[in-house]
Amino acid sequence: MTDSLTKPNWGHTPWTIDFHPSPVALPEHIDFAVVGAGFTGLAAAAKLRRMAPEKSVAVFERVSIGAGSSGHTGGMVLAETAVGDLPGLGDMLAGYTKVLKDLEVDADLALPGVWEIGRTATLPDSPISWSDSGNLRAVREVPGGSVDPGRVVTGLARAAAKSGALIFENAAVESAEFESHSARLRISGKTVTANAALFATNAMSLELAGLSGRTKPKFTLAIATEPLRGTQIEQLGLASGKPFYTIDFPYLWGRKLRNDGFVFGAGLVHLQNWRELQDVDVSKGEAGNLIARLENRVRALHPALRNVQFTHRWGGPILIGDDWRPIFTRHPESPRSIVLGAFSGHGVAQSVYLGCWAAEALCGRRELPQWDSSGENEQ
Question: Would 195 be classed as within a structural domain?
């Protein structure tokens, strides 16, 4: 069973989600059920309808589209998983770019590359030189960039709805019972039967997705600055527009916004149970303290940031698997259902790319990869 979740006080992001589906009655039966209306679920729903337009697809979201990880990410696009490349992964950036283009999603996608920054073995000509537990400088450049997460969620939802997928907000899947050829989902007191299902709830509803005990939910924090002057951006070494992340600790990541403000992120609230996400409040408690520490840390990075003001403070959930690999496997109770998540903070491109792969697998057109160290994934 899952618990009802209202929208918690996770703060305010610099982007917005500009789509909500029109209310319709819950169907009694569908071909494909998608649980979770974030990057993964919405991309999969749009792909399913494009591949199999004769099949019915419904997306069930317990609050509103993008209410979880997808709407609260920092929008940094990375080329690999948290453990690097994986067998058969392919060119994820090219695949992600193609999905956005095919679905006509205006994502504000920019791929100038990403700085890996650190405190040892740095580039002699590093444009970045900050004070942060040592001299923080660029180590190397890797492929990647950034998107506007609000535009991605909005665009994917519109593409899914335009293709004929039904999207239901405030439709918590309370339980799932599996039979040999179907899944019976209990939603708002009603039963919906699906021939196959994708569970794309990431850090939420871990019991429903069969991920309880296999993953660790966390809550991560971010802040956004006011627009910076051109001279400030030059002094920081960020005129190239490349996002950045540290390869050592203490961890720090960031990226430029369209208005010349910058996002900085760091810190984790550790949770015993995913339901504790409901009580996280970025204005107080542990999350509030971490936000305050992050603000002080950013102001101390460089004289150009000494008096910077912050316009947005927020956080969001991430899910980490035991071995930091994404979980992309059959549901433990149903070979006709797929579970996808645990991107460990690397999910912006990965979730969309693998969501479309999951859609292909549900249609019998592609096998799942062998990434799960437990050996549960099928080839």
Answer: no
Q: Does a structural domain hold residue 127?
A: yes
In a domain, 365, yes or no: no
pLDDT in tens, 94-112: 999 999 999 999 999 999 9
> What pairs with residue 186 in β-bridges?
175, 191
State the Cα–Cα distance between residues 177 and 322, nearest whole angstrom.
26
| Residue 357: φ, ψ to 5° | -65, -40
pTM of the complete model: 0.96
pLDDT in tens, 244-288: 999 999 999 999 999 999 999 999 999 999 999 999 999 999 999
Residue 174 lies in a domain: no
Question: Which domain does 297 fall in, by range?
Answer: 111-144+215-321
| Helix segments in the chain, DSSP class H | 39-51, 69-72, 92-102, 149-163, 230-236, 285-299, 347-362
Residues 6+ apart with CB under 8 A from 379: 367, 368, 369, 370
Residue tagged 């899952």 (tokens) = 2
Give the tens place of pLDDT for each residue, 8-32.
899 999 999 999 999 999 999 999 9
The CATH number for 307's domain is 3.30.9.10
Read out DSSP for 354-368?
HHHHHHHHHTTSSPP
Q: What's the total number of domains in the chain? A: 1
Question: Which two structure tokens, joined as six digits, stand for 66?
Answer: 């993008």
